[in-house]
Design goal:
By secondary structure, this protein is of the alpha/beta class. The protein has helices spanning about 1-20, 25-30, 35-70, 75-100, 110-140, 145-155, 165-170, 175-180, 190-200, 205-225, 245-255, 265-270, 280-285, and strands at about 165, 190, 230-235, 260, 275-280, 295-300, 305, 310-315, 320-325, 335-345, 345-355. It has four domains: about 1-70, no CATH class; about 75-160, no CATH class; about 165-285, 5'-nuclease (Rossmann fold, 3-Layer(aba) Sandwich); about 290-355, OB fold (Dihydrolipoamide Acetyltransferase, E2P). It has 13 helices and eleven strands.
Length: about 350
Amino acid sequence: MLDLIIVLSLIVAAGVLGFRSTEFLPQDVLGQVSNVEGLRWVTCGFGALILGIPAGLLTQGAYRRLEIHIQRLPVEVLLTRSVGLVLGLLLANLILAPLFFLPVPSELSFLKPLAAILTSLTLGYVGTVAADTHGRAFLRLINPNAVEPMLVAEGTLRPATTKILDTSTIVDGRLEAILGTGFLEGQLLIPRFVLQELQYLADSGNEQRRLRGRRGLELLNRLKQTYGERMMIHPADYDDGQPVDSKLIRLAQDIDGTLLTNDYNLNQVATVQRVTVLNVNELAQALRPVYLPGDNLDLKILREGKEPSQGVGYLDDGTMVVVDQGRAFLGEEVGVVVTGALQTSAGRMIFARPRATLPTP
């Protein structure tokens, strides 16, 4: 309705302008017109069609864009800009008040309203810009918690996305340590169908599956006590016979959340469907220390290697170290020197030789 009012108002204004435009024609031109009243209505119609309709449509589009922009602005920004605009206009009136008492020649009388308009526009704009620059300090004086929404609205800060936990992450157990470091931000969401899968595992007849399910439930209880304000059980479920992995991807798409998982296949499928995924295994791989050729390690040789003279040991993070000429030290802890490394699909492998076998420099 408002759009129609805007368009009609501008059409009427353009029509009135066209109707009155005949008064500005020279008298000799008007003397040649036999029907001046008809000419006025013709110019009225041309003004409404040529000026009114395009101007109405352009103004309607500009108004809609302004309305959408204002709706997206948070209340804090609107408040500070309004205060800045009011202060700018108040300052303009204070400056202009003495100006109107000055004597001005009649031929220059138009300067007073022109100066009033220019001064009001300039200081109003300056007040709005100053509010954008110093509005945070102003809001901080009123409410210290009001600054963060402004930073989020302007893009300086971005809100942390909700993390959706799947079953593999919960039963893995490393989530508690990751949360303890403080590197994982945002809300932690456990879908109800994931809880049902954990309960199914805990009630399983297979002892290993039963232990994993119970460990996952115990972990959730501990996290609920420690991070209760961040954890939430999501009631959404999709009763269409889909597997849990498909439901997780669909939920992440619905709420624009981040999927937290250890499942390699789920990671790949979710990535194809443009769902943001955090993989705890990839995080652990990235945090493993990098060993370069020439680095020294203290390693216990646990078993024989494939080659006759090789021995195999493991680092604390599970990385396998193949030690050339290490079979003679089987069951012993020995100092080794790294000679190379190999990244495979199954993980990283380090090659080394005992320091005792190296020639003395």
